[in-house]
Amino acid sequence: MDKIFLKGLKLKTRIGLFDWEKQIDQIINIDIEVGTDIKKAAETDDVSYSLDYKALSIKVKHYVDNNTHELIETLIERLASMILTEFKVEYVTLSIGKPGAIRGSQDVGIIITRENHRIS
């Protein structure tokens, strides 16, 4: 299984439980890793056989820009579901960090891995 990754995608969103959090844009950091077979793309040197990671980053940014959630848990599950549905990947591992959420810490966040059971 080959892996394609995108690290350090910094996006603004409104996320949190508290009223003040829902009123301000906050920075979140997203790392994405997907499992896919790049063999045919490498053999043919044809981008149509590879994952369009620009399209992936645009979809993630669009979702984050146009949705609000109280929990990072909700955001990360919805992003994973979207990626598995819209891109032909075996799995996705997502990491979302919310720097500044805990005083004295550099970052706090969640990492999940979800598999695409529709691909055989």
Walk me through the topology.
Blueprint: E1 2-13, H1 19-22, E2 26-36, H2 39-44, H3 53-66, H4 72-86, E3 91-97, E4 109-115
Antiparallel strand pairs: 1-2, 2-3, 3-4
Strand content: 25-35%
Shape: elongated
Q: What is the gyration radius calculated from CA atoms?
A: 16 Å
Q: What low-confidence regions span 5 or more consecutive residues with pLDDT below 50?
A: none
State the helical fraction: 25-40%
Would you count the extended β strands for me?
Answer: 4
Structural class call reads alpha+beta
For the sheet with most strands, the description reads: 4 strands, antiparallel
Strand order of the largest sheet: 1-2-3-4
Number of helices: 4
General description of the model:
It contains four helices and four strands, in the order E-H-E-H-H-H-E-E. By secondary structure, it is of the alpha+beta class. A four-stranded antiparallel sheet has the order 1-2-3-4, covered by helices on one side. The chain is elongated and about 50 Å long. The mean pLDDT is 91.
Produce a short descriptive summary:
By secondary structure, the chain is of the alpha+beta class. It contains 4 helices and 4 strands.
Highlighted features:
single chain; alpha+beta; four-stranded antiparallel β-sheet; 4 helices; 4 strands
